[in-house]
Amino acid sequence: MSEIILITGAAGGIGQCLSQQLIQRDAELILADLDANRLAAQCAGLGVRARPFAIDITEEQQIDGLITFIRERFGRLDVLVNNAAIVRVGSFADRSTASIRRELDINLLAPLMLTHRCLDLLDHSRNARVVNTISIAGIFPTTESPIYSASKFGLRGAMLALAPELEQRGIQVSCIMPSATDTPMLRHEAVSGGSPLQFLDPPQTVETVVRHILQVLAKPKLETAPKRSELWLTRLLMLCPNLLPRLMPLLQSWGERGLKRYLSDLEKRGLAEQRNGKWRLIAETHE
C-alpha cells in the first residue's frame, strides 16, 4: 500500500528533490507551497501521484482546506514533512515588526499548528511519522539571522518535548539538523549579507540532505544530521554558551573565508556575479 505523504515547502530545493525520490518509491504525495505556478509545473513532471496544494501555511482557513482535502481523498496521513521555512538577514534593529512576525509564523507556529491539525489523520496510519527539517541553527545561533535561529531553536525544542506524547499515539517524531545546504535560499543569503557562520564548512548538496531524510523515514530517529561531526561540534560548543562572545570573532573570520569560496563557486557555475563590489544572483534556480 502506498504511503500518503504531505510535504510543505515542496517547491524549494529540498522539497523538489525529496518529492522526486518519494515518487520513485510509489508514494502518494500532497505537495504544499505558496508558489502555485512552480508547484503546478513540478507536479506535472512528477505524474498523477503528486497533487499540488497552493497554500499559505500561516493561514488557519487554508490549513483547514488542506486537512479536508487529505481526509476526503485518502482518509489518513502516513508522513508529515515540515520543510517550509524562510530566512531574513540583516540588522535586528532594522527589522519591521511585521517581518519578524512573518518569519516566526512560517518557521515556528505554522509547523506546530499543522502538526496539531494532522494528528487525527496520522492516527489512522500504521506507521505515522512527523519529520521536521530544522537546521543546525536550531542548536547554534547564527549571527545576521537571529529570528531564524529563534524559530529553529523553538521548533526543535517543541518537537523534542512533543515526541514522548506523540509516540504514545504511535507517531514517531524526527528532527533533521542540516547545516548549510546549496539551495536557492542559501544562495540568496550568501549575496544578501547572511551569516558567515553558515560557511564554516562547504555547503552540502540537496541530494545529501534528501538521502538522510529517506534514511530517517525508513528508520526514525529523534534527532540526527547529515553531517554528524557538525552536530556534535555545535552541541559541544553550546555546553559553554558564556564562551560564545570570545569564540564568535574567530568563527566569523573562518566563515567569511568560506563565504568567499562559496560565492566564487556560484560565479563559476553561472549563478551569481559581482557588480560594483556587490554580489547578486543571476538566476533563482530551484534544483
TrEMBL record:
<keyword id="KW-0560">Oxidoreductase</keyword>
<protein>
    <recommendedName>
        <fullName>Ketoreductase domain-containing protein</fullName>
    </recommendedName>
</protein>
<dbReference type="GO" id="GO:0016020">
    <property type="term" value="C:membrane"/>
</dbReference>
<comment type="similarity">
    <text>Belongs to the short-chain dehydrogenases/reductases (SDR) family.</text>
</comment>
<dbReference type="InterPro" id="IPR057326">
    <property type="entry name" value="KR_dom"/>
</dbReference>
<feature type="domain" description="Ketoreductase">
    <location>
        <begin position="3"/>
        <end position="183"/>
    </location>
</feature>
<dbReference type="InterPro" id="IPR036291">
    <property type="entry name" value="NAD(P)-bd_dom_sf"/>
</dbReference>
<dbReference type="GO" id="GO:0016491">
    <property type="term" value="F:oxidoreductase activity"/>
</dbReference>
<dbReference type="Pfam" id="PF00106">
    <property type="entry name" value="adh_short"/>
</dbReference>
<dbReference type="InterPro" id="IPR002347">
    <property type="entry name" value="SDR_fam"/>
</dbReference>
